[in-house]
Write a structure and sequence with these properties.
The chain is rod-shaped, with a radius of gyration of 55 Å. It has four domains: 42-94, Laminin, CATH 2.10.25; 96-133, Laminin; 136-173; 210-328, Cadherins (Immunoglobulin-like, Sandwich). It has 333 residues and is mainly β. The protein is built from two helices and 25 strands. The protein has a six-stranded mixed β-sheet, with no helix packed on it. Strands 20-23-22 form a three-stranded antiparallel β-sheet, with no helix packed on it. Its main location: secreted. It comes from Gorilla gorilla gorilla (Western lowland gorilla). It is found in: Secreted, Extracellular space, Extracellular matrix. Residues 54-92, 133-172 form the EGF-like domain.
């Protein structure tokens, strides 16, 4: 119970009021530090320093990739190839291909990055972005049968004059005679060979021979000039390629008439001065013309292949000639 204020002297009254004030203030002073624990967002009360200190939110791993602590806050960052999602914490892949990736030709997005690729016929440059043309012709001499021409992103095969491209790399002779792409007159016959054609006269018979069919000339027995000549000459034409492997059978000769007791012998009568061909007799009525060594064109042979018919019992001897014109093409195809 407090003393009566009117009963105390003035000095004592002053002391009594002072004690009364201090007694009422002491409980509040002991709770004063608690009144400062309410800090702003991003801070917490530090009882040691009696101040609000920054909270390091990064230690709670709020961010998917990287976290940067800031005074009173934090910021999430993503690795290259990613960007912050709508929640500003998770990272989503960036499609660099839709954002102007520096790929020259083709771009493929992948998780966190992208890849540059090139079209067929190109290869990726060392910088990983640009594309360089591949010179396919320099890799192999077998890509094309005749000539390989490099083009941007591809190559093409070309054939020489007189040939056409077969599929993509082979060359095929153009038969001008069959296609009508020739300049032969009505009095001529078109003869096709590898890489070209030849116009030959329909009548190639020379005196004393007379024409009896389109390609056959006959020397009449009644003509004295025919006594030492083959009874007939038949004209034939064929074509072969250059550098053909040898020996090679190229043409078969066949007797059209067989006489009892007769023996037939075959030989090259003319046109083989270099010995490039020889005759291999198969039987009494046929023989094979054989190419003896490789020949290079363009070149032309006119070979008189003779069949001599003999009958010793009747003292009979006659001959006929197959005049074979052999065209050698300029190429191996």
């Amino acid at each position: 119970m407090l003393p009566c204020a009117s009963c105390l002297p003035g000095s004592l009254l002053l002391w009594a009021l002072l004690l009364l004030f201090l007694g009422s203030a002491s409980p509040q002073d002991s709770e004063e530090p608690d009144s400062y624990t309410e800090c702003t967002d991003g801070y917490e009360w530090d009882p040691d320093s009696q101040h609000c200190r920054d909270i390091d939110e990064c230690r709670y791993r709020y961010c998917q990739h990287r976290c940067v602590n800031l005074p009173g806050s934090f910021r999430c960052q993503c690795e290259p190839g990613f960007q912050l999602g709508p929640n500003n914490r998770s990272c989503v892949d960036v499609n660099e291909c839709d954002m102007g990736a520096p790929c020259e030709q083709r771009c493929f997005n992948s998780y966190g990055t992208f890849l540059c690729r090139c079209h067929q016929g190109y290869e990726l440059h060392r910088d990983g972005f640009s594309c360089s043309d591949i010179d396919e012709c320099s890799y192999s001499s077998y890509l094309c049968q005749y000539r390989c021409v490099n083009e941007p992103g591809r190559f093409s095969c070309h054939c020489p004059q007189g040939y056409q491209l077969l599929a993509t790399r082979l060359c095929q002779d153009i038969d001008e005679c069959e296609s009508g792409a020739h300049q032969c007159s009505e009095a001529q016959t078109c003869v096709n060979f590898h890489g070209g054609y030849r116009c030959v006269d329909t009548n190639r018979c020379v005196e004393p021979y007379i024409q009896v069919s389109e390609n056959r000339c006959l020397c009449p027995a009644s003509n004295p000039l025919c006594r030492e000549q083959p009874s007939s000459i038949v004209h034939r034409y064929m074509t072969i390629t250059s550098e053909r492997s040898v020996p090679a059978d190229v043409f078969q000769i066949q007797a059209t008439s067989v006489y009892p007791g007769a023996y037939n012998a075959f030989q090259i009568r003319a046109g083989n001065s270099q010995g490039d061909f020889y005759i291999r007799q198969i039987n009494n009525v046929s023989a094979m013309l054989v190419l003896a060594r490789p020949v290079t064109g363009p070149r032309e042979y006119v070979l008189d292949l003779e069949m001599v018919t003999m009958n010793s019992l009747m003292s009979y001897r006659a001959s006929s000639v197959l005049r074979l014109t052999v065209f050698v093409g300029a190429y191996t195809f």
